[in-house]
Amino acid sequence: MRLKDKVAIITGATSGIGRAGAILFAREGAKVVVVGRRKAAGEETVRRIKGMEGEAIFVKADVSKASEIKRMVDKTVQTYGKIDILFNNAGILPEASKKQLKDLSEEVWDQVMAVNVKGVFLTSKHVIPEMIKTGGGSIINTSSNVGHIAMKHRSVYVTSKGGVTLLTKAMALDYAPYNIRVNCVCPAVVETEMASAFLKTAREDEKLWGEMMSKIPLGRVGTPEDVAYAALFLASDESSWITGSSLMVDGGYTAQ
Ligand SMILES: NC(=O)c1ccc[n+]([C@@H]2O[C@H](COP(=O)([O-])OP(=O)(O)OC[C@H]3O[C@@H](n4cnc5c(N)ncnc54)[C@H](OP(=O)(O)O)[C@@H]3O)[C@@H](O)[C@H]2O)c1
Predict the structure, then answer these.
(1) Hey, whose CA ends up nearest to atom 30 of ligand 1?
(2) pLDDT tens-digit profile of 37-46?
(3) How far apart are CA 43 and CA 51, in angstroms?
(4) Dist CA 69 CA 249 (whole Å)
(5) Using a 6 Å cutoff on CB, does residue 89 contact ligand 1?
(6) Ligand 1 pocket member 62 (CB < 6 A)
(7) In the β-sheet with 246-249, what is the strand arrangement from edge to edge?
């Protein structure tokens, strides 16, 4: 097992990529702390892990709220004694953010930055002291292909993911001396709740679907498991000489 005896916190594990990561990490031997705001969905992730003899707890927390993150980290240490892996995966792409910049409200700008960027900061800030105590760890942030290239009508989302890509590098430099590695996974379009409205529209519109597929050399959208496997590699000791990197999980989207 690739994560035997490790303790992993995964934010945004109530659905999509985070849930797939939680199930995969648990199957590889990790004790998993499932984090998100939706209690029933978080408990469902835990139920699936326990159903395969895995170990997990759900802790309800909003990544943009320092007090809730501090409580979640305390609960993790009380329950499992340490933290080896942090998968900072929670993120949002509200419909109201899909606009040209002049039409974007300040409120929506702040909301996206609070979850997608400040959330990574807050969770890392509270987890890193625990990793230092035990001699190191691995942090994986979920950025995006649009953390490297821009996209029309997505100014705040691409800004937030560009921020996550550079925050990954900054954290990697600061914490390499403590044996804490920090990397990010950069998915393109993945079949999850976040992308469901867009994918539904695209599937009903042959031209739009064709345009999207022309940008993905491997000719399909991603699955949550495609991204979870990339995160698993970065979480495991197999990647022990990799830090500050962006692993593109995008079917070749950013290769062209
Ligand atoms: N799907 C794609 O095409 C795609 C592409 C590139 C990158 N990504 C990134 O992948 C990550 C996961 O998204 P997904 O595609 O798996 O979509 P998803 O199914 O909508 O999952 C998003 C997760 O983030 C959690 N979350 C949102 N706001 C939160 C908050 N304030 N505090 C705690 N948790 C919060 C949600 O949980 P609760 O609602 O329970 O809080 C949910 O578990 C995101 O960072 C997203 O930006 C997705």
Answers:
(1) 62
(2) 999 999 999 9
(3) 12
(4) 28
(5) yes
(6) yes
(7) 55-60, 31-36, 7-11, 85-88, 137-142, 180-187, 246-249
Query: Which of 202, 161, 203 has the alpha carbon at shortest distance from 185?
Result: 161
- Compute, in angstroms, the gap from residue 241 CA to the centroid of ligand 1: 28
Residue with tokens 């996206």: 112
Cα 10 to Cα 18, 23, 95, 200, 205: the distances in Å are 6, 10, 24, 28, 35
What is the value of pTM for the model shown? 0.99
Q: Is residue 69 classed as helix, strand or coil in its secondary structure? A: helix
Question: How is residue 112 written in tokens?
Answer: 């996206």
Domains of the chain (ranges, CATH numbers): 7-187+224-249 (3.40.50.720), 191-221 (no CATH)
pLDDT (average), residues 90-115 = 98
**Closest C-alpha to ligand 1, atom 3:** 189
